[in-house]
Amino acid sequence: MMLRIPVLFSATIVVSFIVLIALPVWRLYGDFVVTDKQRRRQECACEGDLRYHGFNTSTAAAAAAAAPDENPPGSDVVREENCDTRLFPQGHWNRVARGTHIIRWNSTGHHMRYGTIAVQHAIWRHQHPKSCKRKKFLVYKASGNGNGIGSMLHKATILLQAALDLDRILVFYPQRHGQWLDGPFCVGARTLDSCYFEPISSCSIRTAMGRRTWENTAWLDAITYGRNSERTLKDDCFTFGAIFLFRSTPFMFHELLAQGNISIASYYWWRAQGVAYLVRPNARTMRELEYRRWEVFQNETIEEGTLSVHVRRGDKGKESTLAPDEVYLATADAVVRDNPDSVKRSIFLSTEDASTVQFFSALSNWTVRWTNVRRQSRDYNGGTTGFAQLVGWNEEFLNSLLSLQLALECNAWVGMISSNWNRLIDELRSTIRCKSDRPYVDVFVGSNIKDYDWR
User: Could you give the angle at the alpha carbon of 318 between the alpha carbons of 156 and 381, nearest 5°?
Assistant: First the structure.
């Protein structure tokens, strides 16, 4: 009897240790092991997609090494001779434009960001599974909280990364009062991809949510990301629990990046790929942009060699230093001087500031074009979203898309990369427009914007 007591006492200690200490530690470790398995599975899936679409990572890496002048170490630019729009997945801006014969793709280049076409296919295949029934989801309220269009889209790229990492499908959550969704163009639409853009997934919000409500769905954060056990996670542009992924890239593309001698922390590369996938205007939006091109741009053509100058003003001055118009002009002069064979003294100007239009329109040694839309006075302090509410949310969104389209038809760019809108121009010109080799110059840091401090 005396011998049984220590045995029972020891057994009790062992069981208590397992329940109270070992099991929680094992579960925590196990959660991250699962994430690691997901990473390997996603990398394998990506490799399969790359091979399926004819992208040889070894060949691409060799191409990068073979042209050191064009592709310095870590460069994400690889020459792609064939930038045929039909190579992109269905629904991409290029293919919608080609199908509707609307947009003037008159100056598509021959250089794009490393892996662009294959990555776009990999994202598209992930977001369009054969069946949605057994999938996990990440739902996102994209609009609101005073976010500008560029900020809203860049946050969505980070949510797309989280979805890829966790083998989840990203779906926009319907918003009854979604700011940028308010107005006659978006009547009946409650998400960006049911109004302006192609659907980001073939899975429906009904499948993603089931019987859940927004209130009883778990938030995405570092803990739920690591655990990855809930069928559906949520995030919105106000809470933005995915902030911890701000400066990283999806697991599934790490091997691809390594083959191309690009850091897996190159969020500059990923943001461009994410935006190229998300910003896919649908046919209805493309027709509206063509109408507006006639209405506010007199259906003019952007001639070869035109320089895009985007001058960000307004509330951006609260978080960044703004350059005066004279600095933009001096930078434009320098671009022409350094590229006399490819850039002319012709500017397409986009800005929300009426005074900036007045400044550039008075130049006698430049040809300057701009859209004839309503703009802010320099002393206006209502911010981007305040002005959109004043002129109409849909109106401002569509006019902005038209300016983006016209900027992408240019052959060189001057801007301030701390602006989300300037980033959109840079990201899309170097992916879907195959112009990654053309000059983009920041008015503060020059051409070396690769490792810019993105917010």
Answer: 100
